[in-house]
């Protein structure tokens, strides 16, 4: 009876009926139905795989596929459960490797970097044991290199770029060696392309655009070949678009403007074709329009940049209208803020204000909901910050907008005190509020804002004493605090703030660092103007630093005027 139900052609419904009928071939029929439904109806594919798992619980293939489909659908908890079950059941090294790798990817997607590192490390140990027995095993080499590459990405995210590059280079070398032993199979070609892309991105971050561009060229060639040979697999076109976008950035960085435009347009064309075939790709297309806008703005093509941002906005508004949940709304808000930034740079203040105000209204609507996350308050603050910047550019009052931005940041900080991002955000917003108050001679308000910012940044520095960013941020707040105290006539407080700032500057910069010379010269100019017993010492020190900048040919007009003033001119 089962044989009569088994279909001979690629008919998913017939396979599904055969699977439901049971019998020796039922599990296989369920898997075949799932394979046919995977592209057209993922939810039915998951149902078919669930039946296959039920019919053959010890078979690793269906459970792996079920975990993968669950992850692709955003059901991370279900995906993790399936992978963990498989890991506890199987002794098959290949199945264990894939389950561990998937668990690593899931942990990484949720921000659990240490847990992800552990899973990838276990993959490497498993494959190292295989390679110890057979150094020429290409499958083991592939999985070892893939895990090593993932760990390199985690290292890069943690800021350990030297270790990241070493790991990325090792992964690529291992894959290239495997390809030399065999012909370059499509699987190896894909892994080599991923490794080239990863290493190129690290080199681009390290300001090595020429080398990065060569790696992107290698990756692009392989992705293009895979896109041709595997026409029904959209993944290759998606990563090809990403590769062209990175190539555009590398071309821009090395001064090849025309090549940068061409590469970015190729990235966009690939994304447009993907979105035409699959509406889910519209998100990525909107993001690509935003990247194109940023590139064109950097190249001075403001008209093209504005057109690109409008395209991104129209897509984001459509997506948000179709699904007005958190993520679409946040994507639209950030798109609107990007549009506001681009218009502000181009001097189109009315367009900038309209976009920022639309973003503000949407962000405040979500922030006002009961139990809204701190992230919504931070987004609302960012919108008020842009409105303040637009007002400042238009030479109108910006104080109220910056004060509202600071208040929103304070609410976010109080709602998530353990998150240093909100502490940094509040400290930065307070500096802007203080600057706006100084401009309108509201010196007491300015001093209070700068004092609160400095206190927050001091706590952040105490948590990470060697963090150069934290040191610099505190120094900036102290400089502003000194200016506000000076404006109020409290010279002792001003000197105290600037002396603390100078001590931080000595910690931050090397002795022969030109930027450090500039920074310290300005602080010591403040101290010279604030009087006190050390004023003359600071005046001479500032002059020596300005002289060094002049000899290096990097003295600005403003610094030249300050130097002249220090000489008594």
Report what the structure shows.
- The structure is a single chain.
- The protein has 569 residues and is mostly helical.
- Among the domains are: 300-416, Serine Threonine Protein Phosphatase 5, Tetratricopeptide repeat (Alpha Horseshoe); 430-507, Serine Threonine Protein Phosphatase 5, Tetratricopeptide repeat (Alpha Horseshoe), CATH 1.25.40; 509-569.
- Helices cover 81% and strands 0% of the residues.
- It is built from 27 helices and no strands.
- It has helices spanning 2-5, 12-21, 26-37, 42-55, 60-72, 76-89, 93-109, 113-133, 138-157, 161-181, 186-205, 209-229, 235-253, 257-277, 282-298, 302-322, 326-345, 349-367, 374-393, 399-415, 420-439, 443-463, 468-487, 491-508, 514-529, 535-551, 557-566.
- The chain starts with a helix and ends with a helix.
Report a brief summary of the structure.
This protein is mostly helical and 569 residues long.
């Amino acid at each position: 009876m089962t044989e009569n139900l088994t279909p001979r052609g690629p008919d998913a419904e017939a396979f599904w009926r055969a699977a439901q009928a049971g019998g020796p071939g039922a599990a296989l029929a369920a898997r075949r139905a799932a394979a046919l439904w995977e592209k057209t109806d993922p939810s039915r594919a998951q149902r078919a795989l669930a039946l296959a798992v039920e019919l053959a619980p010890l078979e690793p293939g269906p459970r792996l596929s079920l975990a993968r489909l669950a992850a692709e659908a955003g059901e991370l908890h279900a995906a993790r459960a399936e992978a963990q079950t498989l890991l506890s059941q199987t002794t098959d090294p290949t199945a264990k490797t894939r389950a561990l790798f998937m668990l690593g990817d899931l942990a990484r997607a949720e921000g659990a970097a240490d847990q992800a590192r552990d899973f990838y490390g276990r993959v490497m140990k498993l494959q190292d044991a295989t390679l110890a027995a057979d150094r020429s095993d290409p499958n083991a080499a592939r999985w070892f290199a893939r895990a090593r590459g993932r760990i390199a990405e985690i290292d890069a995210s943690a800021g350990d770029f030297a270790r990241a590059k070493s790991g990325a280079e090792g992964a690529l070398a291992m894959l290239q060696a495997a390809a030399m032993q065999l012909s370059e199979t499509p699987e190896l070609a894909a892994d080599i392309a991923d490794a080239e892309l990863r290493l190129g991105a690290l080199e681009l971050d390290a300001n090595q655009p020429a080398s990065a561009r060569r790696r992107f060229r290698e990756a692009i060639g392989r992705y293009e070949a895979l896109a041709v040979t595997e026409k029904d697999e959209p993944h290759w076109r998606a990563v090809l678009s990403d590769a062209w976008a990175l190539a555009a950035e590398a071309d821009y960085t090395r001064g090849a403007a025309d090549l940068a435009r061409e590469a970015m347009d190729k990235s966009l064309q690939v994304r447009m074709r993907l979105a035409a075939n699959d509406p889910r790709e519209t998100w990525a297309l909107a993001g690509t329009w935003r990247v194109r806008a940023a590139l064109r703005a950097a190249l001075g093509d403001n008209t093209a940049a504005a057109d690109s941002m409008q395209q991104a906005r129209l897509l984001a508004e459509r997506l948000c209208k179709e699904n007005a949940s958190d993520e679409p709304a946040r994507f639209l808000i950030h798109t609107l803020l990007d549009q506001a930034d681009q218009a502000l740079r181009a001097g189109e203040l009315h367009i900038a204000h309209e976009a920022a105000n639309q973003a503000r209204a949407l962000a405040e609507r979500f922030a006002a909901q009961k139990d809204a996350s701190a992230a919504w308050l931070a987004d609302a603050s960012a919108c008020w910050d842009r409105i303040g910047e637009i007002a400042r550019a238009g030479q109108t009052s910006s104080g109220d907008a910056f004060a509202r931005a600071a208040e929103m940041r304070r609410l976010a900080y109080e709602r998530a005190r353990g998150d240093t991002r909100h502490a940094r955000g509040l400290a930065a917003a307070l500096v802007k509020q203080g600057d706006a108050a100084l401009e309108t001679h509201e010196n007491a308000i300015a001093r209070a804002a700068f004092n609160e910012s400095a206190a927050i940044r001091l706590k952040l520095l105490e948590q990470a004493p060697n963090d150069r960013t934290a040191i610099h941020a505190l120094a900036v707040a102290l400089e502003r605090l000194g200016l506000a105290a000076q404006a109020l006539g409290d010279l002792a407080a001003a000197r105290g703030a600037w002396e603390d700032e100078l001590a931080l500057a000595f910690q931050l910069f090397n002795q022969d660092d030109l930027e450090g010379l500039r920074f310290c010269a300005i602080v010591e100019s403040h101290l010279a103007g604030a009087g006190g017993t050390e004023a003359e010492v600071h005046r001479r020190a500032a002059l020596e630093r300005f002289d060094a900048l002049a000899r290096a040919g990097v003295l600005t007009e403003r610094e030249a005027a300050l130097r002249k003033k220090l000489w008594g001119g």
